[in-house]
Every structure is written in C-alpha cells, then in structure tokens.
Amino acid sequence: MAGGTNLAAPPQAPPPADGGRENIDLHELAKGWKAAIARSTDPATRHEAQVKNDRGNLPLHSAASFRAPLEVSEALLESYPEAASMTNNYGNLALHFTAWKKGPLDVEKLLLQVFPEAAAQKNNHGNLPLHYAAHYNAPLEVVEALYNAYPEGAHQKNNDSNTPLDLAIADGASQNVVGLLQGKSVPPSDDEMLEGAKGKCDRMEKELQRGMEEHDLIREELESVLGLLMDVRDNHPHALYSAGIDPAAVSDLDSLLDQVRQAGEADRRSEAAAAGEDGQLGGTAIAAQGDEDDELQAIEDALIPPDDEVETMLSKIIGLDHVKNQMRGLRRTIELDKLAGPNRRERTLPRHIALVGNPGSGKTYVARILVSLLHKIGAVPTPNFVEAGRDELVDRKSEARTTQKARRVLERASGGVLFIDEAYTLLPSGARSRGRDHGAAALKEIARSLPSGGPLVVLAGYPGDLQRVMASNIGFKSNFLLRVELPDPSPAEVSRMFLMKLGQKGYVPGEGLSVEYLSELIEGNTDEDWRAERNGRVADLLLQAVRAEVKRRVAGGETESRGSLSPFRALPSPSSQKVPTCPPEEIIVTVEDVQNAVVNGL
Question: Is it the case that residue 434 has pLDDT exceeding 70?
Fold first, then answer.
C-alpha cells in the first residue's frame, strides 16, 4: 500500500441498541430492505430519515454502506434531501460509503446529482470518495463518475500524503483505472459498446428501410410510365413506333418492358455507331478536322434543345456525365412531383449538396453552374444566390459577432442557394491565434439552418478537408445526403477545356489541332503526378503558354492569321468617332504554337 497507508473503511452503523428501537428501525431497513421505502414515505415515520445513530450515521449512510437498491436511496433523499450533504462523526458522506462499496453506480450518480460538491469533500482522514474507490478497486464506471465530477481529485493528497492515483497503483487497480486517473482517454465500457452497436444497427435498419422505400417508389414510377405507354398502345399504337417499340409485340406490361429495353439498347448501338463515323456535321470546322472526339461533342451540342436553358448550361461542363445525370434526375423527380399534384407521394429530396474533388477538378466552376440551375429546375423557390468564404462569414473580434455575420449571410441567401467554397477554412487551425479563430461559430450557425433547407447550401472542398467538416458532429453529415464526387479530368478532357478556353479568348484552332492530338501531346510531355496536382489547371497553364508563344511569333513578323494577327487592329482608338469598316480578323493557333508552348512554357 502506498506510503504504508492503512486506509480504513468508513465506519458502518452499529447494530441496534436496546434503548434505540424507535430511531433505529429505519437504519436497519435502509440496509437493503424495500420496506424502508414505505417507512420513509409514511408521514408518521418519515422523520426517521433525519435521525443519526451514535456514530452520526443517517439512514442514507446505512443504505449506501450496505449497497441498498436505488429505490431505497431515492425514498430517503425524498424524505430528507439534505442527507446527501450530511457527514457522520468521521466526516464521511454517503458518497464515501458508495465509493468504498464500489457502487451501485446508479446510487453514486444520484448522490452526485443531488450534492455535486460531495466529490470534492474530504473526511477527517483527508480522503475523498475517489480515494476509497481507487483503494478498494471499484469498477471503472464508479471511478470514472467520481473522476468526471472532480478531475483534480486524482492528485489530491490525504493525511498520509497519498493521492487516489498512488493508491490505485499500489493496490493493483486495472490499467484502465490507472490510465483514467493519469488523465488518459478511457476505452468505452461494455455498455457503451453495446449501445454503440445498437445505434449502428438502428441506423442500418433505417438505411435499409429507406432503400426499400426508394425501390418501391421507383417501382411505382415505372409501373406508372408503363401504364401510360399501355394507354398509348390501346388508343394510338402507331405512336409507339417513334420510340422504337413495336405495338404488335406488346401484350402486357412485361412484354412492354422488354420492348422498352430493346429500344434503349438499339439507341445506344446507334449512338456508338454514329460516334465512330467520319462524316461531316453541318460543315463545321471540327468535323472538317476529322477528329472523332470533336465530332461526338458536336453531335451532343446539336441534340441540345435550343430553348432548354438547363441542358444548355449543363453542356458547359466538360465530361462529368454522372454530375449532369444527377441534375437531370433531380429535375425529373421535381417535375413528376408537380405533375402528380396534391396526391403525390412524399419524396426525400436532397436538402444540401457537397461537391468533392482534388485541386483543379473543377469544383468551383461546376458549383457556380449548378447553383444557377437549382432555381430553374425548381429545387429552390427563388433565384437568390450568395457565394461566401471565410472572410464573409467570420468576424475576428468575437464569436457573437461571427454568429451575427453568418446569420446575415444566411438571411441574404434565404429562399435560394448559399455556396461556400473551401468550407474547411472555417475549422479551427493551429496557424491562427485561438482568440481570433471563430470559424466554428459560423459553422454552428450554418448547421442550425440546415434542417429547414432554406437556403440550400452547396459546399465545395477537397475530399479530406470536407470530410473533417462532415465529421464535426454538429449536424452537417446527416443533412448532406447528395455528395457529388468530381474525378480528375483525363488528358482528353483537359484538351477539350483548353480548346473551349481558346475559343473564349478569340483564338481559332488551326488544322490538326484536335482533342486527340492535344491529349497525346499533354500525356507524352507531362508527368502523371504533375498532372494530378493540377488537373484542370493544366488547360489554363497551356493557354497562358500558347498566348505567350503567339505574341512571340507576332513580334517576329510571322503571319498565320487571315490578314492581321491582332484582333484589335480593326478597332478605332478610344478617342476616335469612326466606326470600324471591317470586322476583327481571327487569330489562328497552329500546332507549332502549341508544341513550342509545351516545350518552352508548360
């Protein structure tokens, strides 16, 4: 035993004396008999809960000493609540006895709830309840409740200069108890692990139930569409030919579904065959170059309805077909809801959206397109759009001002979309002083608004950083059911980005400058890891290098354009009142320009 201490147990109540029968009945019953409950609640005898025996013990001390059930302690405290703070002749509280007897845990928690200061109160020998729990090898849960109530007690010395930690080590307490008293994290108890497992099972059951409901919903929608097609077959069978369905082969819903699948497969084969042909499309320059990828893009552009703003905006996104399809699916779901009217079945639409991708994968670009689409497809009631970062959400002076600032941003975006780029910057960082790092307050205010869905919040960030936001346990993860992952663009997609940016700057790709050629050039002259660090930014770097190469060529007197190499040469000076008599002439970017740009500048 540490320091040779003989830590005596708190004295118990003595056996009943002949002359103290009236005052001792409740003491005896309190040792575990539930008859004590009736006696302590009876108006004629409840005063006995306040009577001490010759050692100064109240009936509550006796109940704690003999590990009486929780109901007994509750009844005694109801009759005399001050009993939890009363000591016996040796300075012991009822909590000292509970710690010595290693529980019950629920009684210990009750005593701490009624008189929290008990955890920090020493008896005449200088012992805290924690000293007894550590010395007598109480279960981890009992020690943990006392430690959590008064953590400083682990290092408080008794009259023999021993701390609870000293006693735990000397008397062979478990490693978990010793670790707890040393301030280390404690592994979850069996009960906690059981509760965690139950919670996980509950969540999995809910996910399964949700999946089954979604499956039923899809099945209902499929049956509704097939029923509509069956009505068409019955009344206008010839109309089915336009969809590639033979009405003569349709006899029931199953045969109709087979016909729909066959028609879809035929469409896919036709599209694949069309993409492989070398024919021209409207005499465009892309088809004239004979580039297969550009032909396919031209076909896709030609199929976009000119009056469909949603599809026109989606066409601005290069690649990322799964992102476009998710938006189309959300649009169709909302349209079906409107068609169903007041009898529609309740659907679970994503309240908020998370865009996840590596640097340069186009998160911000895609997000700005998507937020403008959300109103057009009916996901939000107004076109209101607010883009915010750390500077717009955080006030360096205080948390209260940060909360107000974030609330004003949310109010400005009300009814529309709030786009937060690089949301991870709101998390605490060691690079910022603790007194001025109030990003967490902004996150909490945003999380508070998430369940209402107004505004709809779009987050964008890197996978690891955004995962930290979702794992912050303040309500983000459960409200961001739609997670859109943006893959790294391929060299072909980077090439298409470059050609699109080239056209936006007024340049014209010369002969041979196709997607296929550019992708081979990029892939053959850059390292894969280098591309992975930049992704879509490779297109920007290439554009900058090409523009520098064109300027260098112009300065050298070479001419590859149709007349003048400067698109501004045909424009009048700012002070001139003359109107230009001819349009600006095109600048052609040649294969040599791009090759030199890759070698010299990229």
Answer: no
Q: What is the CA radius of gyration of the chain?
A: 38
Distance CA 283, CA 304 (A): 18
Contact assessment for residue 106 and residue 140, using Cβ atoms and an 8 Å cutoff: no
Express as a percent the part of the chain with pLDDT over 90. Answer: 13
Sign (positive/negative) of CA torsion 489, 491, 496, 501? positive
Instruction: Report the DSSP pairing between strands 353-357 and 417-421.
Output: unpaired
Q: CB atoms < 10 A from the CB of 130, how many?
A: 32
Q: Which two tokens stand for residue 253?
A: 């819903």
**Distance of alpha carbon 275 from alpha carbon 269, whole angstroms:** 10
Range list of β-strands (E), 494-572: 507-509
Residue 72 CA to residue 49 CA, distance in Å, equals: 11
Other CB atoms within a 10 A radius of the CB of residue 443 amount to: 24
Distance of alpha carbon 357 from alpha carbon 71, whole angstroms: 57
227 to 210, 215, 237, 246, 249: CA distances (angstroms): 25, 18, 14, 16, 16
Count each helix (H run) and each strand (E run) in the chain, helices first.
26, 7
- Per-residue pLDDT band at 243 (split at 50, 70, 90): low
Q: Which two tokens stand for residue 193?
A: 């692990």
Band (328; pLDDT cuts 50, 70, 90): confident
In whole angstroms, give the CA distance from residue 55 to residue 37.
Answer: 23
pLDDT at 277: 45
Rounded distance between C-alpha atoms, residue 370 and residue 357, angstroms: 15
What token pair was written down for 92?
A: 């012991």
Whether residue 150 is predicted with pLDDT greater than 70 in this model: the reply is yes
CA distance 366 to 247: 42
Structure tokens at 552: 């260098």
Tallying the residues shown for the chain, one arrives at 602
- The owner of tokens 């003595």 is 14
pLDDT above 90 for 88: yes
CA gap 189, 195 in Å, rounded: 10
- As a whole number, mean pLDDT of residues 144-149 equals 91
Residue 246 region by backbone torsions, left for phi larger than 0, else alpha for psi between -120 and 50, else beta: beta
Is residue 392 a contact partner of residue 326, using CB atoms and an 8 Å limit? no
User: Hey, what are 21's tokens?
Assistant: 């029968």
Instruction: State yes or no: pLDDT of 429 exceeds 50.
Output: yes
Rounded distance between C-alpha atoms, residue 248 and residue 1, angstroms: 95
Distance of CA 238 to the CA centre of its chain: 51
Torsion angles phi and psi, residue 357, rounded to 5: -175, 165
pLDDT band at 128 (very low <50, low <70, confident <90, very high): very high
pLDDT at residue 124 greater than cutoff 90 = yes
Q: How far apart are CA 445 and CA 30, in angstroms?
A: 51
Structure tokens at 3: 């320091």
**122: three-class secondary structure by DSSP:** coil
Supply the pLDDT for residue 82: 94
Question: For the range 327-330, what are the long-range contacts, defined as Cβ-Cβ under 8 Å and sequence gap of 24 or more?
Answer: 327/370, 327/373, 327/377, 330/377, 330/379
